[in-house]
Automatic annotation (TrEMBL):
<dbReference type="InterPro" id="IPR011051">
    <property type="entry name" value="RmlC_Cupin_sf"/>
</dbReference>
<dbReference type="InterPro" id="IPR013096">
    <property type="entry name" value="Cupin_2"/>
</dbReference>
<dbReference type="Pfam" id="PF07883">
    <property type="entry name" value="Cupin_2"/>
</dbReference>
<feature type="domain" description="Cupin type-2">
    <location>
        <begin position="63"/>
        <end position="111"/>
    </location>
</feature>
<protein>
    <submittedName>
        <fullName>Cupin domain-containing protein</fullName>
    </submittedName>
</protein>
<dbReference type="InterPro" id="IPR014710">
    <property type="entry name" value="RmlC-like_jellyroll"/>
</dbReference>
Amino acid sequence: MPGIVRKNFDSADEVRPFEDGKGELDLVNTDRGPVGRAVFEPGWQWSRHVKPLAGTDSCQAAHAGYVVSGRMKVVMDDGTEDEVGPGDFTAIEPGHDAWVLGDEPCVMLDWVGFGDYAVSA
């Protein structure tokens, strides 16, 4: 493994578009696993724009990420909810829905849950 690894999301190893043009996931692969940058456009909601790809009732990915810009609401299957915004670190367990709040895209980085995210089941 090299001492320094540099990758750029603008030259991602893989790009996964969301349904209806509501954003995309840019994925870079590293020796330590994939890292993703997702741009969720206003109006994006997991249950409308990723669920058709995932084929599950709610998002079953665990996430550990950082919100670069925009805001998102997350609602767990048990009803627990929270909002995340710029500068927030968030850890989200499997079993949730989420959607963009407001009219600004939500940009998030994730070190855990984007490897298998937005992939056809």
